[in-house]
Amino acid sequence: MVHAFEMKGRYIAYDSESCALHELDQTAFLSLCSYIENEGKRPVNERLEKIAAECGLPNEEILSVCDDIDELIQEGELFSEGQRVNLDDLYPDDPAVKAMCLHICHDCNLRCKYCFAGTGDYHTGKRSMLDDQTGKQAIDFLIASSGERHNLDIDFFGGEPLMNWPVVMSLTEYCEKRAAETGKDIRLTITTNALLLDEEKTKYINEHMKNCVLSIDGRPEVHDNMRPAPNGSGSYRIVSDRIRTFLAARTSADSKYYEHYVRGTYTRSNLDFSQDVIHLAEELGARHISVEPVVSDEDSFYRIRPEDLPEIEREYENLAEYLIRKKADGDPVHFFHFLMDMQGGPCLYKRLKGCGVGAEYCAVTPDGDIYPCHQFTGEIEWKMGNVRDVETLLDENRNLLPGKKTEEILNSRVRQIFIDRLMPDKAECRSCFARYHCGGGCPANSFHATGSLDGQYEIGCALAKKRLECSLWMTVVGQDT
Predict the structure, then answer these.
(1) Could you give the CA distance from residue 114 to residue 264 in angstroms, rounded to a whole number?
(2) Phi (first) and psi of residue 17, to 5 degrees
(3) pLDDT band, residue 55 (cuts 50/70/90)
């Protein structure tokens, strides 16, 4: 599919199948738009003559432009048919679980108003901590489920995982031990609100965790409005101080690992969220930032509404301009949703399948219950099993017994629902230029917004398209420098 758009005076065309990106002048842009209207075929001369008159050009010049477009079509750079892929192509064998969101606790020391996890207890009314044994069983389940996969990922999550710090350290050491025993590379991430992020924990994370995600929403008034402490007081001051200190240590020569993301959420209360990204970059020194739109109930005061989309789209454009300026100044800031490698990005198969929810990725609660992802946690209809049952599949060395598979302890009906949806095959996806960059969207967002995994979360789709346009624009503008 060819998508042509104008952004800040630049005319851009992107072929989603060939990944060819072109900058055009206005004449070529209008001509290409006429091809798009004509389903990729050369328009009749009458239509082209109207474009010539609109541009104040002789007909011959428009015909010459169309000759160039026809050549690009013939070379497969525009209106490319692309490659048809089915699930068997994607997975010659069954999908293997290779990533886990491990809930270190179902409790939190903040009371964020938009928290999908019910301020930490996942709407159960039960606040709990993961014990050491269940955590190790979860790690053994992941290893046993991974098959021939070498690289495995575990995110220590919550609630707030630093509230259960001794278990974090114990499971980190267990991961390192089991990785050495099995030949796996188990990459660890921790997601934290930073309230308890002291010098000791900072040092340990920087020695053992490949990535760290730090939650803060941006400017003080924005953060304190949505992320208060249990007593209602603001949390910005202590959180920002600790993140600033952590980032300085994380990026120092003494740190084994560098990767990190400072992650926020924007709501209807701060639609000018580009200012929050700028605040995180300029005031905290963050250079890897992700600020996500809130997804919430229809009756929440802070939910994003369709009428907010024009303002949000302008904010993404403002943010793209800021990032271009920072790059030109030699001090780049990376925004997660704008990152796109036009040359060495992921292959077609990886781009198609999205996050692998329920098939390659799962979440595990402190009770050991397995869910397709963290956003389905606590919704019993989506429960896939329990990691404690892995004991029936392991030998004395904690390795999978011959002839055993972890699928034996999983709800095959629930898991198959997500395997069947690894390929984005919604009608809306098939005709969308962004389909290879969002993997069909977030299934949890679709389900919670529409009541169906196959529903279209229209706001999410609109934002994904705009973010891709900004990324394409940045790629084009970046070539100027």
Answers:
(1) 12
(2) -85, -45
(3) confident
Helix (H, G, I), strand (E, B) or coil at 14: strand
Asked whether the beta carbons of 5 and 316 are under 8 A apart, the reply is no
Beta bridge partners of 394: 400
Distance separating alpha carbons of residues 316 and 87, to the nearest angstrom: 34
Indicate the residue type of 279. Answer: H
DSSP state at residue 376: G
pLDDT tens digits for range 258-297: 899 999 999 999 999 999 999 999 999 999 999 999 988 8
118: left (phi over 0), alpha (psi -120 to 50) or beta: left
Q: How confident is the model at residue 92 (pLDDT cuts 50, 70, 90)?
A: low
Q: Give percent above pLDDT 90 in the chain.
A: 75
What is the DSSP-derived secondary structure letter of residue 26? H
What region, left, alpha or beta, does residue 66 occupy, with left being phi > 0 and alpha being psi -120 to 50 degrees? Answer: alpha
Judge if pTM exceeds 0.85.
Answer: yes
Q: In the prediction, which pLDDT does 473 show? A: 96
Q: Is the pLDDT of residue 7 over 60?
A: yes
Q: Are 134 and 391 in contact (CB under 8 A)?
A: no
| Confidence check: pLDDT of 255 > 90 | no
H-helix segments, 209-355: 220-226, 236-250, 274-284, 309-328, 348-353
Question: The sheet that has 2-7: what strands, in order across it?
Answer: 2-7, 10-15, 21-24
Say if residues 136 and 184 touch (Cβ distance below 8 Å): no
DSSP reduced 3-state for 426: coil
Handedness of CA 120, 125, 131, 133 (dihedral sign): negative
Q: In angstroms, rounded to a whole number, what is the distance separating the alpha carbons of residues 180 and 174?
A: 10
CA diameter of the chain: 82
More confident residue, 20 or 82: 20
Written as one string, the DSSP assignment of 124-169 is SS--EE--HHHHHHHHHHHHHH-TT--EEEEEEESS-GGGGHHHHH
Residue with tokens 């800031």, as numbered in its chain = 333
Q: State the distance between the two ends of the chain, measured CA to CA, in whole angstroms.
A: 29
> Is residue 299 very low, low, confident or very high in pLDDT (cuts 50, 70, 90)?
confident
